[in-house]
Amino acid sequence: MSSADTAPALPKLSYLNEQKGLKSWLTTVDHKRIGIMYLVMILIFFVVAMLLGLAMRLELLHSGKQFMEGTTYNTVMTLHGVIMIFLFIIPGIPAVFGNFFLPIMIGANDVLFPRLNLASWYFYMAGAVLALISVALGGVDTGWTFYVPYSGATDANLLIPLLAAFLLGWSSILTGINFVATVHRLRTPSMGWFDMPLFVWGLYATAWIAIIATPVVGITLVLVLIERFMGIGIFDAAKGGDPILFQHLFWIYSHPAVYVMVLPAMGVVSEIIPVFSRKRIFGYKFIAISSLLIAGIGSLVWAHHMNTSGMANWGRVLFSFLTFLVSVPSAVKVFNWLATLYKGSIKVDPPLLFAFAFLFLFSIGGFTGLTHASLSTDIHIHDTSYVVAHFHYTMFGGVGTMFFGAMYFWFPKMFGRMYKRSTAFVGITLFFIGFNCLYIPLFLAGLNGMPRRYADYLPEYASYHAWSTVGSWILAAGILTMCVNLLQGVRKGKPAGPNPWGGSTLDCDVPSPPPTHQFEHVPEMTHGPYDYHHHTTEEVTA
Amino acid sequence: MSGSAAIPDDAGHPVPDAHPGHHDIMPYDPVGARMGMWLFLLTELLLFGAMFIAFCMYYIQHGWRFSLGSQELSTAMGGANTLVLLTSSLTMALAIAAMQRRNTRLSQQLMNATIVCAVGFLVVKAFEWGGKFAHGLYPTSDHMAELSQGEQIFYSLYFVMTGFHALHVIIGGVLILWVKRRVTKGLVTTDRLVMMENVGLYWHLVDLVWIFLFPLFYLIG
Predict the structure, then answer these.
(1) Do B59 and B70 touch, CB atoms closer than 8 A?
(2) 3-state SS of chain B: helix, strand, coil percent to 5?
(3) Would you call A215 and B160 a contact, using CB atoms and an 8 Å cutoff?
(4) What are the structural domains, with CATH classification, of chain A?
(5) What is the pTM of this model?
(6) Which residues, at least 6 apart from A360, have a Cβ–Cβ distance to it below 8 Å?
(7) pLDDT tens digits for range B16-58
(8) A213, A243, B43, B64 - which has most CB atoms within 10 Å?
(9) Which residue of A has its CA nearest to B56?
C-alpha cells in the first residue's frame, strides 16, 4: 500500500513481453495469455453481434420493410443470438477473467491442466470459425435454439453451425473440468474453502454446471444432425419420435447455461462492491453457498421454457415452483451486496458504477423473470417481446454489464495501465441510459402483444420500436466510448501500480502486469480476501 | 509451471518444485489428473444419460412394440459381446496391476489382449448391423417405414446408442494403443502411471455403458 504514494512504474518484464511474436502467443500455456487471447476474440465477436443487433433495430425503426427481407432478418437474428450466446456470453467472464484471475486469486501459478486450457481455446476458435463459415454459406434461420421439427426440415445448412455449437460446448466442458480440478488441487495450502474470493466460488459453481449440463445439449444437437443426414427419427413424430423431447433436452442444458453466464458476473460484483465500500463483504458464506444453490436449483427449472409447448399440469406447477425458488439465492446475493454498502466508506470509481448498473438492470431482469415463473402471466407474455426485454436485462444488463465491469476493474492488473476516469463515467452513463431506452419499450410492446422474432409490426407498436431503436444508438455510443477508452489505456495509460483499488485478494500482491511466473514463493494467507483493516493500520503508521 | 509448491502431493503436503525454470509444465499430480478424468467420465455419463432418458420416455410411450423390436436382435451375439467386454475390462485392470508390480512385458501383453477384445467386439457388432441392413432394417429403408412407430423408434435408438457406444470402443482402443506406445517409450512407468490408470477408467466406462445397453435392447423381448 505504501507503494501507492510514489508514482508506480511498469515492470520491465511481464507475461505480455517475456516472450515475443505471434507464435509465442498461439502456443502459450500461460493462463494469463490464454485469457487475453479469449478477450481479443470475444470482443471481436461481441462487436460483430452488436452490429447485427443494431441492424435489426434499424430494420424495426419503422413498420414495413426498410432494408431487410424477412428471411434475411431471421438469419441476422439467428446469427446475433448464436454469436452473443455461444461466442460472447457463455465463455465471456470465465474464459477471460476466470482464466486470468482464478489461479492468481488462489495463489497458483497456472491452472492444473495448462495444455488442456490451450486446447479449450482452440476448440473455441474452431467453433467460431465454423460459425463464420456457416454465415458465408448463407446462414441459418432456426434461431439459436435449433428447435425441431423446423431444424430437421429447413433448407439452410445446419451441419456447420451445429458442429460449431458442439465444439464450443467441448471448449466449455474442458474449461469447466480444468477449473474444478484447479480449485481443488492448487489452492495455496493456507487457503481454506471459505477463504476463497467469491469470484472463485462463482467460477467453481459455474464450472460444475458446464460439466453437468453441456454434454446433454451436445448429444442433442448431434441427434438433430443424425436425424437430418441419416433419416433416424429420434425427434421425428412421423417415425415415433417426439419433438417435445428435443425441447426438454435442449433446455436441460440451456437453462442452466444462463447460470453459467450469470454466476461469474455475480462473482465479479462480489469482488467490486467490498473493495469500493472499504468494508468486509456482508454474509460471505451465504453468498458462497448461494452460488452452489443457484447451480443446483437452476439445473431443475428448465421446463419453464416450455409452458406453452405441451406438458402435464403437475409438471408446469412443479417447474413454476422451482423457478420461484431459484430466485431466492439470487436475492440473497443482492441483499448481501446492499448490506455491504450500508455504512461502508464508499468510493465511486468506474467499476463500482458498473456494479450499481448491474444491481439495477439485473434486478429488473430478475423481477420480470418472476412474471414468467407464474404460470398464468407466462401464457400471456410467452413469445412476446417482453421475453426479449427480460432476457436482455438479465443477460446483457447483468452479464454484459459485468463483463465490462470486470474489464474496468481488472484492466489495470492485466495491462498495468489505467484508463481515463472521466471518459469511463461518460461511457457508463451513455450505456445505462441507452440500455433502458432500448429495452423498456420492448417490455411495454410485449405486454401489448408484440410477438418476438418478427421482422415487422403493426402501426400501434411504432412508438415503442422508435424509442427502442434510438436507445440502441445511445447504447452503441456508450459501448464505443468504453472500448475506445480501454484501447487508449492499453497504449498510453498511466502505470497503475500493483494495487490501484486497494483490494485485499492475492492478485493485489503481484505486480501489474504480472510476470509469467507470478508467485516465486507459496503465498501465505495473512488476511481474508475482504479484510481491509490491515491497510488502514499500515496507512496510519505510514 | 515451476515454483508451484502450492501443489500438495497425495498426502496433502506441499512438494518442492520438481523442474525449476520450466514454466510450461505442471508438476506430476496424479490425484489432480485422476480428478480431471473422473469429471470427464461424468460428462460421458451425462452424454449417454440423455440418450437413456430418451429410451425411457419412448419405452413408456410404446411399451410392447419395443419388445417386438427387441425380439429381432440376437441375444447370442449381444451376450457374446458382453462377455468379450467384461473380459477386456479384466485384462485392462490386470495390465495396470502388472505395471504396478513393474512387470512391463506382462502389462503390454495384457493390453494387447484388451485390444483384441475391442476388435472382436467391433467385428461382432459389424455382423449384427450388417444382418439388420440385409433385412432392410435401417433408417430410411422401405421396410422400416412399414413398421409400427414403436419399432421404428426402437431401431432408431438401437442404431444411435450402439453406434455411439461403438465409437467409444474405437476411441478407447486407440487410447490403449497410445498408452502402450508410451509404456514402450518409458513415458508411462510404475512411478508415473496415472495416464494409464485414466485410460483404464475410460475403458471401464465403455464396458459399463454396454452393461446397461445390453439388457435394455436385447433382453426386453
Answers:
(1) no
(2) 75, 0, 25
(3) no
(4) 31-541 (1.20.210.10)
(5) 0.91
(6) A432
(7) 444 333 344 578 889 999 999 999 999 999 999 999 999 999 9
(8) A213
(9) A245
